[in-house]
Amino acid sequence: MLRLSLFAILLLLASGVNAQGQLVFETPRHDFGTFTEGKTVTHTFRFTNAGDAPLALSQVEASCGCTAPRWTSEPVAPGASGEVTVAFDSEGRSGPFEKTVMVATPEAGVVTLRILGEVTAAFVGAGVEMGALTFDRERAEVLPVPGTPVQEVFRFQHTGDRPVRIASVTASGEGVRTVFPQRPIYPGDVMAVMAMIDEPARGQTTEVTLTLDTDDAAQPVKTLHLIATVE
């Protein structure tokens, strides 16, 4: 009888030692789809403790400062549920994205959550569509300080479905330099063309036409205008 009692006690102790929590998420991945730059989007990942002992989330860490997680802080009992809510700030972050959130527990190890989507530049829809590229504007007028160079940026987003390459950017007039992407521009990319006028003449208006030669089948040649007036 004593031997049976000792065996029962040892069995109970062994079952207690082996008991542990098990972290099971409904889904470890969420696609936000396409949305406009400037929004903060959130998603809640729900999980269940499928084990036979309480578990606690000891660490939740995002791969980017633009992603902020919140989570259930108290221990989750067996069979009970908890959640991890992830917020993504898209301000200044146009184009496709994929971020991860690492969820760690002493009992169940590490689980990786993923969020992804595509952010459309804020000017798309209100910008100027030129074939596969949509520009924030077609014409820029500036009033530079006398004696200082002009540096103006035209942002654009690739809103088509095939890569586009800018072969060259030709500027009318003298003393004008340009900077443009040298690599292929892929769908969703947000990039820019920069024009620099070394020193516009005082008391005059300098008008520069930028001609972009591309392999965009929808509109190979694109034209931008920069007007600088120095008083």
From TrEMBL:
Pfam families: DUF1573
Keywords carried by this UniProt record: Signal
Keyword Signal applies: yes
Signal peptide: 1-19
Cited Gene3D superfamilies: Immunoglobulins
Keyword Amino-acid biosynthesis: no
Designated name of the protein: DUF1573 domain-containing protein
Lineage of producing organism: Bacteria, Pseudomonadati, Rhodothermota, Rhodothermia, Rhodothermales
